[in-house]
């Protein structure tokens, strides 16, 4: 009886050993490569009204990863894998595809989107999954303000950076300004920040006009602006804050605002949109990026490689995408890991070089502090757009960007 029991136990032990041995190859099929790859999800507005911006952002992201890794597309011996997710510029879809990227695709980090309203919908998803979202290029202040959480970093500029730079360019004693902006987070946050930034300059914001993002007929809006501004004394500007299609500058210029002494002003934009600037020689404003302004090795590489590959200079959002790619690589190297907490620690206060020169992630709200550029439009008949010539670089030290995060 004792012999039978010992024999049975030996058979069970052997079965267990063989079972584990048989299971081992199956466990190996849970791809070690997947565990080792660094998975980056680009969750962006690939289709929809901001499609042109999104395309630039993706090209820039891939070039940034390439540049920062010296062409290897590896960090610390681990391969970079980029997963694309299309938000369709819809907040609900954005939430779902970001959750899919974190949950199903095991993304270590996500980047995107373009639209501010879409970005605001995505922020709680990053917090829920406790994974990083690098916001690029959505601009609304609330992203690193009241809606922010600790898993959010932004390489793109925010509305306050736009506003302060443009206030420096336009604001002076005796100047009166009206604004025209899109009626959503980007436009309203932009005007609020611009109004605040104008305060110390002595200029007055006299009128605000908001219109739907798909507006094509600006006649009624222009008339309200003209009526509000025509009797104002001194120098008068209509400052336009606009993203995407249907930019109103050309249409409003055709209505001859100069009849009322009103000058059109706006910030920088993509090259295609700046074709309308050719009708506005001498116009001043401030821009996030124009390929011929920054002088540094990163931008030199970007301009040369983009011309070689695409037969055109890099655009506004190409530089932003590249910045996000560089930031990801630098953060992983510094952290020595893709663990979220290690990355957060590494990125808070992290200084890194970009096509715009130095950027620094501010520890309090993870906003990238960066230079902006005061410009004046020059017209060259051989160039298809109005050229923003540099008047003055506004450095990190020149701009006191408010911390709007209350957390």
UniProtKB/TrEMBL annotation:
SUPFAM superfamilies: Periplasmic binding protein-like I
KW Ribosomal protein (keyword) present: no
GO term, biological process aspect, one: amino acid transport
Keywords of the record: Amino-acid transport, Signal, Transport
Keyword Transport attached: yes
Pfam families: Peripla_BP_6
PROSITE patterns linked to this entry: TAT
Family: Belongs to the leucine-binding protein family.
Name the record gives this protein: ABC transporter substrate-binding protein
Protein species of origin: Pannonibacter tanglangensis
The organism's taxonomic lineage, starting at the top: Bacteria, Pseudomonadati, Pseudomonadota, Alphaproteobacteria, Hyphomicrobiales
């Amino acid at each position: 009886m004792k012999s039978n029991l010992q024999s049975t136990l030996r058979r069970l032990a052997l079965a267990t050993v063989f079972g584990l041995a048989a299971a081992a190859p199956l466990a190996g099929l849970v791809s070690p490569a997947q565990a080792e790859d660094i998975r980056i999800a680009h969750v962006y507005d690939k289709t929809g009204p901001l499609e042109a911006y999104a395309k630039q952002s993706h090209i820039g992201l891939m070039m940034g990863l390439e540049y920062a890794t010296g062409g290897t597309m590896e960090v610390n011996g681990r391969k970079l894998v980029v997963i694309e997710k299309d938000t369709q510029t819809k907040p609900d879809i954005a939430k779902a595809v970001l959750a899919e990227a974190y949950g199903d695709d095991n993304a270590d980090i996500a980047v995107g989107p373009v639209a501010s309203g879409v970005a605001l919908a995505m922020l709680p998803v990053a917090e829920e999954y406790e994974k990083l979202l690098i916001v690029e290029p959505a601009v609304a202040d609330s992203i690193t303000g009241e809606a922010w959480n600790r898993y959010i970093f932004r390489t793109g500029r925010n509305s306050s950076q736009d506003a302060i730079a443009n206030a420096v360019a336009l604001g002076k004693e005796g100047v009166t300004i009206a604004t025209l902006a899109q009626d959503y987070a980007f436009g309203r946050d932009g005007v609020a920040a611009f109004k605040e930034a104008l305060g110390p300059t002595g200029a007055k914001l006299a009128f605000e006009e908001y219109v739907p993002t798909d507006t094509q007929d600006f006649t009624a809006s222009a008339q309200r602006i003209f009526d509000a501004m025509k009797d104002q004394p001194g120098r008068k500007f209509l400052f336009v804050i606009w993203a995407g299609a249907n930019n109103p500058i050309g249409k409003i210029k055709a209505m001859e605002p100069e009849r009322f002494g009103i000058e059109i002003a706006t910030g920088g934009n993509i090259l295609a949109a700046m074709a309308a600037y050719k009708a506005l020689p001498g116009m001043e404003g401030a821009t996030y990026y124009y390929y011929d302004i920054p002088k540094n090795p990163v931008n030199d590489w970007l301009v040369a490689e983009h011309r070689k590959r695409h037969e055109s200079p890099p655009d506004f959002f190409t530089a932003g995408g590249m910045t996000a790619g560089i930031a990801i690589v630098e953060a992983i190297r510094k952290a020595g890991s893709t663990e979220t907490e290690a990355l957060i620690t590494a990125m808070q206060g992290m200084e890194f070089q970009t096509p715009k020169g130095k950027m620094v992630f501010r520890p309090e709200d993870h906003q990238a502090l960066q230079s902006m550029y005061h410009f004046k439009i020059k017209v060259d008949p051989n160039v298809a757009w109005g050229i923003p010539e540099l008047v003055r670089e506004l450095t990190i030290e020149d701009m006191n960007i408010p911390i709007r995060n209350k957390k």
